[in-house]
Design brief:
This protein is α/β, with parallel strands linked by helices and about 260 residues long. It has a domain of about 160 residues: 3-Layer(aba) Sandwich (Rossmann fold), CATH 3.40.50. It is about 40% helix and about 25% strand. The protein has a seven-stranded mixed beta sheet, with helices on both faces. Strand 9 and strand 10 form a beta hairpin. Helix 3 packs parallel to helix 6 and helix 4 runs antiparallel to helix 6.
Length: about 260
């Protein structure tokens, strides 16, 4: 059940932010989107989710177009979104947040089972299930946001910088959980992230965005050389943006770019 984005142009009003972006998220796959601030990464996720305006291109989920669907219909179709920052209802308890997260699920029994899975992933949430979300730490709120996304019974999860503002050890735990969503629950993940090291550690593939365009794609073999891909990312950015043509990076190309990148 792939999520396919083909030559999309996305923006807000008359301002176009994403230009002819094409990418794919396969079944049981974690895909990262990396790039500098202002590259259009968050806007791309907003466009997939129906928040930003799609002016051109195709977005297909499981072979069917989801263009024009409102966010609640996209959730019901099996795609959930975790926006940047832990988006939780602070005046509600942990348990109430999770119940609300599962509201869009078609089957209440499934949502209840997924809430239990969320508690298994984050035992601290079960311990604090009757506590207001406002009293949670930043890391606990991010855990709650992920558990609420899981409660909606998604097949694909869009995540926008889940490590933002978290301490390194907490961020690593969040990334481990994202990988568990893929391996244990069969959920595909499209992840926007600035933490290259952690993103590459859990991703199967990665795309680079710069100035609103997909400028490179890298497979898992190349991601194993994390520093090499970082060098490739910073080295190819100016070249590929000017050509507007995505470049697929194999492991050998990453290594070669690493040697050639000026120090």
């Amino acid at each position: 059940m792939p999520l396919e984005i083909e030559a999309v142009e996305i923006g807000y009003g008359k301002k176009l932010v994403v230009h002819e972006a094409t990418l794919r998220v396969g079944e049981r796959e974690a895909v990262a989107i990396v790039g500098p601030n202002g590259a259009g990464k968050s806007t791309l996720l907003n466009g997939i989710y129906g928040i930003a305006q799609l002016s051109r291109g195709k977005i297909r989920w499981n072979g069917r177009s989801i263009v024009g669907l409102p966010p609640f219909a996209i959730v019901q179709a099996g795609i959930s979104y975790g926006p940047q920052g832990p988006q939780v209802y602070r005046t509600m308890t942990v348990a109430e947040n999770l119940l609300l997260g599962g509201y869009a699920a078609k089957d209440r029994g499934v949502s209840d089972a997924n809430i239990r899975k969320g508690y298994e992933l984050f035992p601290i949430l079960y311990e604090r299930r009757h506590v207001l979300a406002s009293s949670l730490s930043g890391g606990e709120r991010q855990m709650l946001a992920l558990a609420a996304v899981l409660a909606s019974d998604p097949k694909v999860v869009l995540l926008d910088e889940p490590s933002g503002g978290l301490a390194p050890l907490v961020a690593r735990s969040v990334f481990d959980t994202v990988r568990r969503l893929v391996d244990e629950f069969g959920i595909s993940v499209l992840l926007v992230e600035q933490n290259l090291k952690e993103a590459f550690r859990i991703a199967d593939r990665a795309y680079v965005m710069a100035q609103g365009r997909i400028t490179a794609e890298c497979d898992r073999n190349a991601l194993t050389d994390g520093q090499g891909f970082q060098d490739a990312f910073f080295g190819i950015e100016s070249e590929t943006v000017s050509s507007h043509r995505p470049e697929r990076l194999a492991a050998s190309q990453v290594a070669e770019t690493r040697r050639e990148t000026p120090r």
